[in-house]
Every structure is written in structure tokens, then in C-alpha cells.
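New to this. Please check this protein:
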Amino acid sequence: MKTCKNCGTLLPDNASYCDACGEPCSDTLSHKEYAERTHRKETTKKVRRTILLSVLAIFVSIIVISVIAYIIDEADDEYYGQGEFSEWKNFVSSDELEKVTFDMTYDEVKSILGEGILEASYDGGDYQYYFWPGEYATEEKRGYESFNTGVTIDFVRGKMSSIDEQNVFHGEEARKTFDTDFADLDVPEITREQAHKIDEGMTLSTVSQLLGGKGALIDSRTYRFSSGMTYKYDTYRWRCKTFDSPDVFDVEFHDGKVYHYYLGNYME
């Protein structure tokens, strides 16, 4: 007996065609050969299925482990924010802040500035951010603006690592500008054409010459790191008359060079 290669039907040894499917007997196999071939196919399918299931199991395990690790990691991370104005107690002055150094722990900083507000805590408390409001902080806003002042200190494994100070060292000057109506600022009034002469990279001296005088400081912010790196941002304000109404022209300097400039509410 022999077996049809196409459909597996058993045929007589002298058959020329398969009675079931019409396949020529030249393409037939012996029953033993057909059985061996079928066994090899089934074995190959089982091996492939086993490999596929193993790879899938490993992939799913990696995802599950990653999700569990992420959940555990996130459980240790908390962001609390700076709280409400009514919760602020210790308002920092520039004289107090000058006494803070990078080798201090939180308790040492606390002995100078008072208790801070825990703003965020990450990696099980290895990274903690504390906030202190500046002495010129107030609750009210002016239109779309708010006067931000204070200091955020980053403690890494118990030691001070970086400090973000805003309107503490120049708080009185910036607060005065913030509290003054646009039309009453004691600075040059410029035109829109003059404002468009300002370009990135210019110094405060160059900008002042182009605009007919120095503007009023409205915001001063400094980032300092234990590595010695420092980034300073200062924003100066000029009066500008556009569309027949008083407006302002603000220029932000990064480390003494023009970084951004704003005409009214719009960044140029």
C-alpha cells in the first residue's frame, strides 16, 4: 500500500491516480514515509508553539515586573506643592538667605530660615524640595500677573544640592515695579518700532541704549547648584504705547543676554 501525498488516502501499489483527489500516483509516498513526514510536521509545530509560549511568558513577566517596580517607585514619590498663602509662616529675607551654604542639612537650614514647606519628596525621601516664601510676598494679583517670590532648596540624601531663588535678593525693587501701574512707571516710553529692534543675545546696556534708557526690574531669579553652576534670569520692563493704550514691553535676560521679550501679553 502507498499513500497519496496530497490527501493521505491509502492506495494500492499499482494505482496510477488517487481515487479521492485525482492526484497522480507519481507524487505518492509509502505509508511509512507519509507517517514519518506527518510526525515531523507535528513535532515541528509543537516545538514552535512551545517557543512562542515561552517568549510570550517572558514578555508578560517583564511587563508585570516593570509595572510592579513602577508602582513601588511611584509610591515613594509625592508632590505637595507650595501650599496656600494663608499657610505660609516663615518669610525669608536676603540677609537670612546669604547665611545658607551648600554643605548644610535641612535642620541646619531650618535653624536659619525657619521651618520650610515640603514641596516634593522622591525616591523614598532621598530627594526632597522645601519652599520658603520671600519677605515681599503678598496674596493679591494684578490682572494676569502674580508676583512670585521665595526660595526652593533641593536636599539630596540629606545635603543641600541646589537652590532656586526668586525675588528675594532684589525683592523690594521688583515688588515696587509690580505694584506700579503701567502708565506710571518711571521708565522710557517706547514705540512698537523700537521694541522690534531688540534681538536675542543683546546685553542690558545695548537694549537700554536702543530704548532710550534702562527699564524697571520686574523679576529676578537665580538657580545655583552645588557643582558651582549658576543660571540667572532678570526681566526688565519698559512702558510701550500700542493700539492707543498704555502697555508694557518686558525683556528677559539669561546670564546678562536677551533670552525672550514680550510686548504686552505676547512674546515677540
In short: The first helix runs from residue 31 to 75.
